[in-house]
Give the backbone structure.
Amino acid sequence: MSSDKSRFVPELTKGIFRENATFVQVLGMCPALAITNSVMNGIVMGIATTFVLVMSSLMISALRKLIPSQVRISTYVVVIATFVTVADFTLQAMLPAAHHEMAAFIALIVVNCIILGRAEAFASRNPVLLSIADALGMGLGFSFALVLIGGVRELLGSGSFLGFPVFGPGFEPWVVMILPPGGFLVLGVLLLGLAKIAEVRSRVAARSAGEEPR
Amino acid sequence: MSAATFSPRGETLRLVATLTVAGLFSGLSIVIAYRTTLPRIQANQRAALERAVFDVLPGTQRLERLAWDGTRLAAGAAGQGPLEESIFAGYDANDALVGYAVPSSGPGFQDTIKLIYGLQPSGERVLGMTVLESREMPGLGDKIYKDPKFVGEFRDLVVEPIIELIKGHGTLPNQVDAITGATISSRAVVKILNQANAVWRSRLPAPGAAPRAVTGVASDAIVPPDVERGGPVPGGLSGEKP
């Protein structure tokens, strides 16, 4: 148990940057492209996905010794679908405007491969506490990615941030950014930029370790 | 016990039992979540429809749902039937008829646009228009409800002979300026209004012969429906007269 506790923080933080679901694992692309035309959508989708991730990881990890391996995937999907439906109803009740804007994509969290991926790769073979840390980290990393993509797209495509105009009335919005092609463009540029940062960092690390790069 | 677990039949039973239990718990949780959130969801939808109706009939204090029974508008069928087959009469503080709110829908750029608009009692002018539901393109088509200028075009808009969509600046009182980059969505809105006008204007009672006679029963007064599910919802509007 003490080793579980010492692993809690690393399992939590790995999902935010080092193994970021969107930028490193390149999973969950459908919502990352489809609903990120505003920051608010990114935040709401991030929270909903994190909720489903944490709850289903908790459940699956707690029941991992009871679920026969032949039907584990079906069981995971039932568990995930249940929490997605709960999240769907809750959003509809609490934030009808946000739900209205992404209705279909909330239900589609069921098929977000980050969630089934974490269930199969982590929660099904690790204790509850670590599974929660893993799910929370992955969820936060995913939310961070959605807000980042949404921020760039909203800023360029609507000239606003969280609905507040930033550039003033003279700004001509770059409309393509909030249309589907904008999602691909922004995601591609961000992936490129983050890959470059990772490359530079590993080169610096190699040099400080006393080795010549290359 | 262990013998049963290792026999093929025991193993199959265990698989079936696992999925059955998972399904049971899943169903139970969903029912609980549904039951818990339903009142709030219905209240949201009711509030959204109320807001929309009050919005398109400025000055309205009280609403009444009127359904077309084939020959006349009657309040008796209130709360029954789909939203599309009824309109709302709005009355001001002095109980004078402000106008009618007409819900309508039609194909937009991507999916059906549902909207509601207010008509003068005479049916000659549109008082306001609000989109209830649409999946128009964000940033372009969604300007049909996000752009105040386009929405403003529907305040005091003449409907005779027909509402026209103009690219650029319309000068006549029956013309609406199209949104740049969202001509199809703009055209869809105008077309929905024209089609609904063709149906509903002839059904409106003559000015002065407002459908006051059929009111009076509390249960006939407006009960905005659950927009998405189409079922009647209990509870009346605030500001309703007894």
The longest helix of chain B spans residues 8-56. Chain B touches chain A through 26 residues (CB under 8 Å).
